[in-house]
Amino acid sequence: MTQHRELGRSGLQLAPLVLGGNVFGWTADEAASFRVLDAFVAGGGNAIDTANVYSAWAPGHKGGESETVIGKWLKQRGRRDDVLILTKVGMQMGDGSKGLAKNYIRRSVEDSLRRLQTDYIDLYQSHQDDETLPVTEPMEAYAELIKAGKVRAIGASNFSAARLREALKASQQHGLPRYESLQPEYNLYNRADFEKELQPLCQEFGLGVIPYFGLASGFLTGKYRTEADLAKSIRGSSIGPKYLNDRGRRILASLDSVVARHPGSSPAQVALAWIMAQPGLTGPIASATTPEQLQELLHSMHLNLSAADVQELNQASA
Question: Which residues form the NADP-dependent oxidoreductase domain (predicted)?
Answer without folding.
Answer: 16-316
